[in-house]
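wait is this the right file?? whatever heres the structure
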């Protein structure tokens, strides 16, 4: 069994493999390197076979998205730790060792992430993960270093190892045993927020998620779906409903859902008033999809443990950001993150 397996999920991403895979190989030491291909229709696999003949390739039968792609691949990988790594990430020398050291030191840590900076603006935090993820009381995700579309400059303000609510799927370091014990990522998410769901399930089981600033990577972002996409809008709204219903304590479901339905209705009207008809329809479609799946999601919920966990922000990040102009994580009240 390998100690660390770095698994890169690929779908039609030859340009990213060509640009970033050499640095991952060069800087990952003795880690087992695997490309899990999600039935690509470009020449990704033939490129790998020609230029990286020693690298392991797992060929998934179809493109089941981020969740299913990793689940299908990781059931074939025997290791102590998995690193789920996006193909559009540039790693740095020694990036794995601090993550291993953190996990080895404390068995109560189930998963962690490095510092995620922007590949195109290296002095800035990157949208997908930054210095660790959180959600507010109503289910809106945000990060240290990124709230909504405001990205902070990295000025070492988040250079202390810290417990977080969720670690980004762009570079997720996780105990393999717990990954399989909890059933991995939820296939129904397809893509977006599946890592938040997974981390929430880990927290409900009593484990902690950590941010490790001693490791640093640079992320391009938006490699599969463009940053502005009705498909991304649909997945984000639908998956957020699934996330909340699966993981909230019973007493919180009704009040949270009442508020979220209102807020999502207002968001849909904002899309419509801005002329974004596709995004407006994506919100409606997300709700129809969620309620069509409701029976299945309820069965999943019934098999899970639920607690009032720490590090959910007990205020509205929407109101703090847009009305109170709290654009940086340091402006939020730390007392509001307690269970």
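ok assuming it is, sequence goes like this
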């Amino acid at each position: 069994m390998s100690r660390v397996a770095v698994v890169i999920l690929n779908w039609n991403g030859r340009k990213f493999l060509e640009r970033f895979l050499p640095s991952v190989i060069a800087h990952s030491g003795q880690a087992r390197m695997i490309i899990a291909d999600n039935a690509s229709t470009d020449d990704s696999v033939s490129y790998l076979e020609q230029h990286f003949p020693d690298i392991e390739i797992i060929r998934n039968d179809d493109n089941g998205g981020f969740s299913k792609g990793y689940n299908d691949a990781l059931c074939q990988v025997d290791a102590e730790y998995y690193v789920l790594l996006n193909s559009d990430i540039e790693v740095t020398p020694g990036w794995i060792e601090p993550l291993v050291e953190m996990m080895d030191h404390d068995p109560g840590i189930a998963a962690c992430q490095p510092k995620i900076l922007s590949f195109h603006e290296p002095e800035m935090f990157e949208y997908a993960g930054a210095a660790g993820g959180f959600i507010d009381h109503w289910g809106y995700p945000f990060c240290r270093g990124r709230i909504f579309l405001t990205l902070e400059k990295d000025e070492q303000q988040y250079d202390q190892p810290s417990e977080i609510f969720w670690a980004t799927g762009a570079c997720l370091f996780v105990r393999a045993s717990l990954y399989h014990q909890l059933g991995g990522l939820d296939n129904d998410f397809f893509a977006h927020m599946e890592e938040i769901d997974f981390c929430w399930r880990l927290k409900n089981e009593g484990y902690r998620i950590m941010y490790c600033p001693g490791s640093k990577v640079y992320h391009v972002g938006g490699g599969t779906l463009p940053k502005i996409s009705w498909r991304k809008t649909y997945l984000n709204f639908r998956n957020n409903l699934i996330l909340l219903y699966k993981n909230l304590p019973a007493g919180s479901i009704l009040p949270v859902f009442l508020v979220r339905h209102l807020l999502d209705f207002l968001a849909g009207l904002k899309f419509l008033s801005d002329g974004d008809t596709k995004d407006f329809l994506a919100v409606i479609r997300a709700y129809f999809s969620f309620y069509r799946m409701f029976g299945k999601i309820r069965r999943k919920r019934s098999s899970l443990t639920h607690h009032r966990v720490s590090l959910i922000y007990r205020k509205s990040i929407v109101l703090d950001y847009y009305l109170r102009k709290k654009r940086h994580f340091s402006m939020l009240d730390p007392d509001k993150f307690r269970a």
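The two ends are 38 Å apart (CA to CA). so i think its the right one actually
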